[in-house]
Amino acid sequence: MQTFVLLLWTGALLGYGSCENTSLEELAAVVSNFGYDLYRVRSRESPAANVLLSPLSVATALSALSLGAEQRTEGSIHRALYYDLISKPDIHSTYKGLLASVTAPEKNLKSASRIVFERKLRIKASFVAPLEKSYGTRPRILTGNNHLDLQEINNWVQARMKGKIARSTREMPSGISILLLGVAYFKGQWVTKFDSRKTSLDDFHLDEERTVKVPMMSDPKAILRYGLDSDLNCKIAQLPLTGSMSIIFFLPLKVTQNLTIIEESLTSEFIHDIDRELKTVQAVLTIPKLKLSYEGELTKSVQELKLQSLFDSPDFSKITGKPIKLTQVEHRNGFEWNEDGAGTTPSPGLQPAHLTFSLDYHLNQPFIFVLRDTDTGALLFIGKILDPRGT
């Protein structure tokens, strides 16, 4: 029987207004809630496959695009990003601060977004200047030569991600009016590294009947933050990463359990509450080594987030005098962790609670993880891992 039972609840979004650092934290909270929405849609579309997203890069592209939208279209984007729920004297300058915070060198996160327009489009300077000022990017106008356009986009991704994401071999889609591209890469560094000599091939249970062998890292005396959520029937653990980052794992009590009930609970407020409630414990920990990537379209997923109007008849007259519309949303990302870490011993400040039983936390069956920036609360990556091999 577990000692720590967390009865977690979803607080009101506007509760973030009580924080001292309201602007960055409020913006991080609402943009993250867009991210959880996007993840849920994507997970429903791929019920039997891994899902790996860096929603921040997609939210950034949409937020940047809203600079060129007139009131009706801007309102649609802002509602999807939950901007209507916060005070917003200058959302875009605050976003600049958020991006600077979460992509600081010590965070190990690379994130970038870009807006690509149809060929021969005349873009207003009044759109380009604030785009560059707040989002650090310039729009790209297609040449119409698919080979050259793909090469240029690949070169941009390589430059922004420092070569960590493979070049795309997919063909440029035809009929592009506006293409949004979000890219991200993260390789985590644990605060306490794993002993590579203790990594071994072990069972990962895909379901009740099928198991596969995967490299599992282990630490028999891991210090982590832990809780049992009786409503969601899952064990929650949080491991610290360098750069004020952390990963929260959601592990169902049974391998047969549907992950949907956990997914439906994910909000910035829920994660905020978890972060306050988890208890520091010592546990026997096993966790699969992970190296995953994703490249594909999120067009359909974005349409489902009450943004269909962007694809039909939006008003982007702040960008150009010609009628244009969103036609495609692309996402590329890479994510990995291995034994690497900053030190061999836990932080002196982490004093585990004394338990009367041995606590095990084995990520040896399907789980969900959330990578979070602890400075701002921003959701940076989210994954549903049904098979750590990536197949």
TrEMBL record:
Gene Ontology CC annotations of this record: extracellular space
Listed SMART domains: SERPIN
The cross-references to InterPro entries, in alphabetical order and at most eight, read: PEDF_serpin_dom (IPR033832), Serpin_CS (IPR023795), Serpin_dom (IPR023796), Serpin_fam (IPR000215), Serpin_sf (IPR036186), Serpin_sf_1 (IPR042178), Serpin_sf_2 (IPR042185)
This protein's UniProt keywords:
Glycoprotein, Secreted, Signal
PROSITE patterns attached to this UniProt entry: SERPIN
Q: Which residues form the Serpin domain?
A: 36-388
Question: How is this protein named in the record?
Answer: Serpin domain-containing protein
* Example GO molecular function: serine-type endopeptidase inhibitor activity
Q: Which residues form a coiled coil?
A: none
Q: Does this UniProt record's set of keywords contain Secreted?
A: yes
What is the source species? Balaenoptera physalus (Fin whale)
Bilayer-crossing residues are none
- Membership in a protein family: Belongs to the serpin family.
Q: Which CDD domains does the entry link to?
A: serpinF1_PEDF (cd02052)
Q: Where is the signal peptide?
A: 1-19
- What is any Pfam family matched here? Serpin
Give the GO biological process terms: negative regulation of angiogenesis; positive regulation of neurogenesis
Q: What is its main location?
A: secreted
Q: Where can this protein be found?
A: Secreted
